[in-house]
């Protein structure tokens, strides 16, 4: 672990009350894992990371002067946006690609990846959110992801999407502000549902009543610097307006659609 830090914290104005997260920002692996038996080309695909999200998060954090946490390891090693007991935490096959380095896997290796990469990332997220909070004032947490323009040969029409469980406080205004210009198609819990037990938003926001939203941008729209800059210019004023809403800094626990919270 000492030669591979599993997270990066981008410093910002913690008093702003906003935190950005990028679980799948990078496609890197510790040197000891080689390429997990995959061709190098696999690490340029969505199975390895969320294409465009690192640049998008860095630029937004800089423009808004807010802290952010980036995951520095590929989701092929272990997925930080999955609960510790999720069977897809360490994937054996992803979008048709068999991952030799993950199958077979011993319980010892499974636990090692949790202890060395997954848990340190989440501790960094927890610390950053706590630092952005103040007595009686919750931070607004916005998680950034990206999705493929096609899935199994079918085009996805959405330019962006907002995923969520049952806390719609940040979701409803975010959907409205994104859709207001009328020039993009915005998905509401598309192309997949945002209620996932144990994922990052569940763990750090749903369980503690922190306002939040998960925003996905289609990967072909942020696949280069021009696209990233265009989306930073689109999103920065939207995020500012959300953060200025005092109701998005109140603690309120909503029941999860995935079932009761663990005791």
Could you characterize what this model shows?
The chain has a single domain, classed as Zn-dependent exopeptidases (Aminopeptidase, 3-Layer(aba) Sandwich). Helix content is 28%, strand content 16%. The chain contains five helices and eleven strands; from the N terminus they run E-E-H-E-E-E-H-E-E-E-E-H-E-H-E-H. It has helices at residues 53-64, 107-132, 171-179, 200-206, 225-243, and strands spanning 7-10, 18-22, 68-71, 93-94, 97-98, 140-147, 150-151, 154-155, 160-163, 186-188, 212-218. Helix 1 (53-64) crosses helix 5 and helix 3 (171-179) packs across helix 5 (225-243).
Q: Residue-averaged pLDDT, rounded?
A: 96
Alpha-carbon distance between the termini? 31 Å
The first-level CATH class is given as: Alpha Beta
Number of domains: 1
Write the H/E string, N to C. EEHEEEHEEEEHEHEH
The value of Rg in angstroms is 18 Å
Q: Main β-sheet, in a few words?
A: 7 strands, mixed
Structural class by secondary-structure content:
alpha/beta
Tally of contiguous helical segments: 5
Question: Which key phrases capture this entry?
Answer:
11 strands; alpha/beta; hydrolase activity; Aminopeptidase; 7-stranded mixed β-sheet; 263 residues; globular; UCP029730; N-formylglutamate amidohydrolase; N-FG_amidohydro; hydrolase
């Amino acid at each position: 672990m000492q030669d591979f830090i599993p997270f990066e914290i981008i410093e910002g104005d913690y008093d702003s009350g906003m935190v950005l997260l990028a679980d799948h920002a990078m496609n890197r692996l510790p040197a000891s894992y080689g390429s997990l038996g995959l061709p190098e080309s696999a690490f340029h695909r969505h199975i390895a990371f969320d294409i465009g999200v690192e640049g998008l998060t860095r630029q937004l954090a800089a423009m808004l002067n807010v802290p952010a946490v980036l995951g520095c390891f590929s989701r092929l090693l272990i997925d930080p946006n999955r609960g510790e007991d999720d069977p897809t935490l360490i994937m054996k096959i992803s979008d048709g690609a068999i991952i030799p380095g993950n199958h077979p896997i011993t319980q010892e290796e499974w636990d090692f990846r949790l202890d060395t990469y997954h848990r340190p990332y989440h501790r960094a997220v927890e610390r950053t959110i706590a630092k952005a909070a103040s007595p009686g004032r919750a931070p607004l947490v916005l998680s950034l992801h990206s999705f493929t323009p096609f899935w199994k040969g079918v085009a996805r029409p959405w330019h962006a999407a907002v995923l969520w469980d049952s806390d719609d406080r940040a979701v409803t205004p975010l959907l409205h502000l994104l859709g207001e210009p009328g020039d993009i198609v915005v998905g509401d819990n598309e192309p997949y549902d945002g209620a996932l037990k144990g994922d990052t938003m569940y763990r750090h926001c749903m369980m503690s009543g922190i306002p939040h939203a998960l925003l996905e941008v289609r990967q072909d729209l942020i696949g280069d610097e021009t696209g990233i800059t265009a989306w930073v210019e689109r999103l920065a004023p939207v995020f500012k307006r959300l953060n200025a809403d005092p109701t998005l800094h109140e603690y309120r626990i909503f029941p999860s659609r995935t079932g009761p919270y663990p005791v």
